[in-house]
Design brief:
Strand content: under 5%
Distance between the termini: 54 Å
Structural class: mainly alpha
Order of helices and strands: HHHHHHHHHHHHHHHHH
Helix content: over 70%
Number of strands: 0
CATH class: Mainly Alpha
Oligomer: single chain
Radius of gyration: 23 Å
Shape: globular
Length: 545
């Protein structure tokens, strides 16, 4: 298997460095949040709860995830499709520095309390123009990095005609393509609506269009996180447990279905909003439920892999296979905890996408608890599990037995803390506790007192999670600089079903991207036209304001 070249290794390592720096700062902001919401802690220097909330959301949901994902995808593509050319590396580095510059600009405005607009930066909340310009640079940078991956894949295909690409490379291309198509929406809103508005060129903004373009991007963002975790689940985890890939074709088809159906579903985040026809909301809810199919395909593939591996070890009985899994290996245990968390997380997502049930939990802490099960557990723990071998692979250091045990403890602590915190969020949400609100904004002392028990539970769970983050940071630093020198495997599973021959049709990009764009147009063209046509009186230009 190819060794990752030094120049590519530097690119990957700086992505991981920024990701874990964002984790450290964003994690601390999260700790402050849960402490403030108990009513027992007051932030110094006139720092507002909502400022801390913005730091936490932006750094963890956007910066940590995106830098880590592109670092991981560069590593996966380099490992399986060969060395990037000098031009592609230059393109990737340009994208990285644009992302970094944009992150610094946006973060500085948040820290200066000039962009306290939360992670979703909904209008009519207005931030400083530098915040929006930073976001725009960030997204443009990701496009360049995604383009570098796609062009590298294209070069591989030219030299390997009539051959299917390596599975990890294929997955990275699908994920990059989905990200680029989806992020055009939010970037368009930032560039053509929010920047001119924040500069005073226009006095108003069309909020309906702004929110719609955000959620055109916002839900695919969830799958951008998940597909990156699925890359590790499908290809890395089977090798870690000592087995083979269950089905190449199933994995490719699942990713293509995510590409088609994960973008035109944003209206299910806007079920409570006016200005959108119920018929179009219903149509996108149907598309949302279609996305469940590739998720179930992924669950089937993973547990079929686990069971077939255990049966090869002579495991018997309904759950005998469960005992045969490598429970002493953090590379497996930590992501597996994330897999288990996705069972209730996915069920919660079905509730959120269902109009009547969404009406019960909309804008309550149930939604916050759901996010913390999906991105903050399923995705994040998978990323941690990947880090425990990827960092050593890049630095030429090994995962020692002591650090491996510490990593398992870290995963268990995360599971305990998240169960307490997310569980209390779900329960309080069912009882009507609002989200995005500080302790003092619950409608008076009597109303705030109603939720204090749940806030204390969230503070306990959040504190345990922060301890787990500190362990992660220690492990990452140790693996990067102090672990014994040696060869750390980049685990990539081999094909398991030798008779299977994946169809070249699965890499007919004109077909799959064409279907994706067609479904997007069907789902969004008429609703967006209606929003423009029925813009509020006094709007100007193309009715964006």
């Amino acid at each position: 298997m190819k060794i990752i070249e030094q120049q590519e290794g530097k690119l990957i390592k700086v992505h991981l460095f920024i990701a874990f720096l964002a984790l450290a700062i964003g994690g601390f902001a999260g700790l402050l949040q849960v402490l403030v919401k108990t009513g027992k802690v007051v932030l110094p220097f006139n720092i507002s709860y909502y400022q801390v909330l913005t730091v936490h959301g932006v750094l963890l949901a956007l910066v940590f995830t995106t830098f880590f994902i592109f670092g991981f995808m560069f590593a996966a593509v380099s490992k399986t499709a060969g060395t990037f050319s000098t031009k592609m590396l230059l393109l990737a580095w340009t994208g990285f520095f644009l992302m970094l510059a944009g992150t610094i600009m946006a973060a500085w405005m948040i820290l200066m309390n000039k962009a306290t607009v939360l992670y979703t930066f909904y209008a009519p909340l207005q931030a400083h123009a530098i915040f929006y310009i930073g976001l725009a640079l960030f997204f443009i940078g990701t496009w360049l990095e995604g383009l570098a991956i796609i062009l590298h894949y294209t070069r591989w295909k030219k030299t390997h005609k009539n051959m299917l690409s390596p599975l990890l490379t294929f997955m990275a291309v699908v994920n990059s393509t989905m990200w680029i198509i989806a992020s055009f929406g939010v970037a368009g809103s930032i560039i053509f609506q929010l920047i001119p508005w924040s500069l005073g060129w226009h006095s108003t903004v069309n909020v309906a269009i702004s929110r719609t373009l955000f959620w055109y991007f916002g839900h695919p963002l969830v799958y951008f996180w998940l597909l990156s975790a699925y890359m590790a689940w499908y290809v890395v985890i089977p090798k870690v447990i000592g087995w083979k890939l269950y089905s190449d074709s199933l994995a490719r088809l699942a990713f293509l279905l995510f590409l088609i159906f994960s973008i035109p579903v944003g209206f299910h985040h806007q079920l409570m909003e006016p200005g959108i026809s119920h018929n179009w909301k219903f149509f996108q809810v149907i598309l949302t439920f279609v996305v469940i199919i590739p998720s179930l395909m992924t669950a089937f593939s993973m547990f079929a892999t686990f069971e077939s591996f255990a049966r090869s070890k002579k495991a018997a009985g309904l759950l005998g296979w469960f005992k045969q899994l490598p429970w002493g290996d953090a590379r497996f245990v930590v992501p597996f905890i994330g897999m288990l968390a996705f069972i209730p997380g996915g069920a919660g997502g079905i509730i959120n996408a269902s109009s009547q049930m969404n009406a019960v939990v909309h804008n309550t802490t149930w939604i916050t608890g759901h996010f913390h099960l999906t991105i903050s557990t399923t995705v994040t723990l998978t990323f941690f599990g990947v880090s425990y071998w990827l960092i050593g692979h890049l630095t030429g250091r090994t995962l020692t037995k002591k650090i491996n045990r510490l990593a398992i403890i870290q995963g268990i602590l995360w599971a305990i803390g998240m169960t307490i915190m997310s569980g209390s969020m779900h329960i309080a949400g069912l009882l009507g506790a609002p989200r995005r609100t500080a302790f003092t904004d619950y409608g008076g002392a009597a109303q705030a007192k109603k939720w204090i028990g749940y806030q204390l539970a969230q503070a306990v769970g959040g504190s345990i999670l922060f301890i787990s983050i500190l362990l992660v940071l220690f492990i990452v630093i140790y693996l990067a600089f102090f672990s014994p020198k040696g060869v750390q495997e980049f685990p990539i599973a081999e094909m398991g079903r030798s008779s299977e021959k994946p169809l070249l049709l699965l890499e007919n990009w004109l077909l799959w991207i064409g279907i994706t764009l067609f479904v997007i147009i069907i789902a969004y063209a008429i609703p967006l036209y209606s929003m423009i046509q029925h813009a509020p009186p006094g709007s100007s230009g193309y009715q964006l304001w």
